[in-house]
Amino acid sequence: MLSAGALGITSLGLPSASTSASVPTVAVADTFTVAAVADRTVRVTWSDSAYTDTIEYRPADADADDPWTTTEAVTSPADVVTTEGWATTATSRAYDVRIRTSSGGVSVVTDAKEVTSVAAATGGDAIDLISVDVEGESVLHRVHRFDADGDLTLAFTTTVQYLIVGGGGGGGGHIAGGGGGGEVVTGSTEVTVGASPVVRGIVVGAGGAGGLRVAGGSPDGDADGDGGDGGDSSAFGVTAAGGGGGGNVYRGGHDGGSGGGGGSVSDSGAGASVTAGSGAGSAGGPGSTSSQGGAQAVAGGGGGAGGTGGAADATAERGGDGGVGALSAITGTELRYGGGGGGGVNAGDSGGASRSAGEPGIGGDGGGGDGGPKPDPWDGTNAATAGLPGTDGLGGGGGGATGDGGLDAAETSGGAGGRGVVIVRYPVPG
Question: pTM for the whole thing?
């Protein structure tokens, strides 16, 4: 983008267009476009001519004999900073813009077109310009991404589209369920701006902590081994709930934006399956039961914003997969958000007899973390592995930890949930 300095903007009183026969033909007359693209900046696009082109602009309410501000020679497209005629508190200013083509000491100008130049909308950790198809036409949109709490300041009336994703739930700490993905909420709202800019507060939910298995301790059935719930995200009065934490062994998954997966029941424990959490997105998958007859206790996957978490399958010795996240293309690229974490498995027993470690569940598409990877080979003393974290900015649930049965020497934890995100976009005025 060219700055005002780069364009060499100066205020000049230029002569009227000559009518001499030697004046070059201006093929761009009435064929150029002009649109607001950034803070007090307009973009002018036209077919390049074989002559020297400059851009001229002045406030739309200027008198007929007021001078035009002109740039140095430019090529299409050119960005012009409209610094002339702005009041310090103004949120927008209308300008007339035209193109002057010169050759051999003579010049002609196009008819002027009016454009509303606007003060920038601010806020967020990344701001991009993308083209969006609107009823068959390409419309320039500005996208703001919030990875942390902040303010969106708008200086013009517009319709804002939003994607709000809660933080993912953490995976449980011992043969445990995967965390649920953060809830995903999409929509739009009209923001009306008067004489002063409008500020809207944005809150981004943190991912839940992974449940912890303390070295030398006995976390079985302990709530401290559950994954933590993800934090809520909010904007424009709309809230997306954080995902539920994955359940520790013997414990159910937590309710949340999507439910956490259920922890396992050991193969010597009660026959009833451990329940999964529910949520506005999808429920997590239940943990295994001893009645399934498998060699391993395995845990359920966390629910995703777009699909239910997979149930544990002790017969196949496999943890449940995380549920798939919800799809959005608000940034111009299709991505899934709010995937659930995969369930952990049992890779050992209290007697130290070697078993083939079960297969952990896979994290759901949309940032879900996998269950703790199986140890290969298992040395009979420490088979516990941590669940993988959910992806920050996607609100994925953390994977449940793989445990070592009754062995109590190992310390491990579930994967932390991924941080949520708030993304907004709106058409650029012009």
Answer: 0.78
